[in-house]
Amino acid sequence: TAVSSSRFSTTTEPQTFPNRPLNPADSSTSSSSTSFQTSSAAGDIPHQERKNPRAEYQGEQARLRLGWSEEAMIAGAKEVGISPSIVGSFPRKEAALVEFFMDDCLQRLIDRIDSGEELQDLIPSQCIYKLVRFRLEMQAPYISKWPQALSIQAHPLNVSTSFKQRAMLVDEIWHAAGDEASDLDWYVKRTVLGGIYSTTEIYMLTDSSPEFRDTWLFLDNRLKDAFDLKKTIQEATYLAEAVGAGMGSSLQGFVG
Question: Which of 123, 147, 245, 252 is paired with 220 by a 20 to 30 Å CA distance?
């Protein structure tokens, strides 16, 4: 699945964790299991929607067991009433499933950014923290199977698309944070953020703290380190320029 643009057309509404994001096991945004009942006095009370948490949980766990696999795609096709043979039209199968999920998550992040909510009056580091956390929270329901997704992305045949998707992700986040750099600093910022995102993603895989509390602390510390380093580099650059200018003036006065 080639990625040609950082803007996608989708009907998926932006969601906030822990609302259920796209299910990796069925490649479709199927609705949750619901049931309807009427009161004994027919016509007096309209139909009421009633969710069955236990049934939803069991169904979710059954799908998660399939992971990012061809079997998951077949199960998803059956669930929405499509012939399982349609899976044959996706030659890259598991990779296509993971890439679809990545694209959908990026679109949801873009929708969140475009809504203009929650990001106003935030300094760049706060904005980046909020968006990286929001993006990683989309993977939280599937964390037990995410190592499989990472393995698929790292396959030599898939790594190019995976790199493009992650590059687009960090670019969108920096853009939302107000970055307008166009020189070498543009590449440095995105490389640093890409590294922070990836290390936080890996840390999240082994985090057993409630609601991934330790992961978000890890992310916050990494971002603080990165912005402190940037400040240190800038100060060193200004000092070098000042020293250079001073030495130039002194030398000019000496020879003059």
Answer: 147
Within a domain: residue 9?
no
Peptide bond connecting 91 to the previous residue in cis, omega within 30 degrees of 0 = no
DSSP 7-63: -----PPP--TTS----TTTSS-PPPPEEEE--SSTTTS--EEEE-HHHHHHHHHHH
In a domain, 173, yes or no: yes
Note down the domain range covering 119.
34-255
Would you say residue 51 has pLDDT above 50? yes
Q: Could you give the CA distance from residue 227 to residue 124 in angstroms, rounded to a whole number?
A: 9
* Mean pLDDT, range 141-146, rounded to an integer: 93
Domain holding 158: CATH number?
A: 1.10.357.10
Question: Model confidence over 168-209: pLDDT tens digits?
Answer: 999 999 999 998 888 888 888 999 999 999 999 999 999 999
CA distance 46 to 244: 80
pTM of the shown model: 0.67
- Other CB atoms within a 10 A radius of the CB of residue 52 amount to 13
Residue 121: pLDDT over 50: yes
Residue 165 to residue 100: CA distance in whole angstroms = 10
| CB contact set of 4 (below 8 Å; sequence gap of 6+) | none
- Coil, helix or strand for 69? coil
- Are 111 and 14 within 8 A, CB to CB? yes
pLDDT given at position 36: 28
